[in-house]
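dumping these here so i dont lose them again. two proteins, back to back, each one seq then structure tokens. dont judge the mess
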Amino acid sequence: MAFDLNKNNGADPDSSGKKSASSKFDLSKGKLEGADASVIPSKSKNVIIGLAGLLIVGGGIWYYNVGKNTETTDPVANSTSVETRPSDTTLAVPTVGELAKDSPAAVENTPAVPVENTTAVPVQTSSVSNNSIKTKLNHKIPATFAQGSAAFNQIDQSLIKGIVSYLTENPDASIQINGYASSDGTLEINQTVSQARADAFKKYLISKNIAEDRVLASGKGIENPIASNGTNAGRKKNRRVEIIFP
């Protein structure tokens, strides 16, 4: 809407034209709105873009913080999975000292486990061995003699060694020596010869460091022949000494 403020309606057209050009005010609302329309929309767009950017940035920060808090507070995500095999697991058994340190009253009130009183039975290997040796040596013939003599005709050195070893290892053991004769001659002579043969072997053992009181010598005459006195070979075997361990 325009207002013509020129009061000189009868003036020169040229001058009126100039004055009218300079004195007219264009109060048209449509022209003002058209001028402002180009400014207002650009500002609104900037504001909207700024708000959208703030929302996007704020949403990103919120999402990051929520994800971080979830990782921190999630016990399943933060728990360390350790595979434990039964064969690798060792059960630590506390000692009595540790129990007493942690809970003296608990240990004090724990009933004592009775220990069975087992008495070890000693194995008498030496006794068994000695009896075995005695059995092997008993009634053995360590020496034979010439006819009518107490001189050794033949002697078994391996048997002598066994006798001396047994008597040395068993200082309380004793030995008996029985002397024998063949049927040659009278009974009195044979008795005397058999005793002499037993005494001769006793002296031999004494020479091997066997105490005299541990050796008993006894003459048996023509008793207990081991062979026939009817032959020379038999009579030769009967002229002997035998050992006995009581």
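---- next one ----
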Amino acid sequence: MSNQDRRLDRWPPVDELVYEPGRAPQWDANAGGYTDPESGRLLPTWDDALDLVDADPDAQPVHVVRFGSQVDAKGVLAGSKDADRCVGYITKYLTKQAADCHQVTTGRQRTHLERLWQELRHTPCSERCANWLLYGIQPKKARPGLRPGNCQNKVHKRETLGIGGRRVLISRQWSGKTLADHRADRKEWVKALLGVTTDHATARPGGEQRHAWELAKPTDPDVPPLGHRVLRAISERIQWRAQLDAAKRAVDPPDVSAISSAQSAVQEGKGA
């Protein structure tokens, strides 16, 4: 089983807290991770925790969802011309303004919302959530500064409580592709349209990398101000769009006769 499959199918147990929010594990730069606040012992990593789950024959799923009565609806058939459009339409309106379905107006509703928020405040929302520290596990790609109970993902916020907030669904069950796969497909489509056969920006003829990439920090002297970076990004997007539109016109030129007929009709209408 690959790491991607394990991420989707397995999760360490979250039924009992190991640490309280007031005495959560702390980052130890010398140890290279989060450690026990009393013993100083390094917490197991995310991959180590998944290995323990895989090695336990009695491991149980964290959540179980069962389907109820099913409806054999055949309004949209796979492969039909309207299938993709219908799926996109339904997905859009199922997730649009999901947080605005119900307004909290009574004291009982406010109490319920407060209780739900307190419960989800310390429940892990993803493999990178800081709340894993309370269960004695380092989150995936752990970094300094994680504070359990203060995860900034939308699922923990009161206004979007329990809602993932992702408008563009990954749709693994539909196509088997992730968002990264779709981005790669779009990149290959643009390269084919522009006639680009290799990545000239990063590779030399012999396969050697031309550039070395590293994360820039705001304090780096060669990093321009934020306003300049935003304007540069906007300018690049405009140039890319113009180049892409030009490539599309070169591949599929417009119907000149149709444009001339339309212009003639407009002129006749003005004359009338």
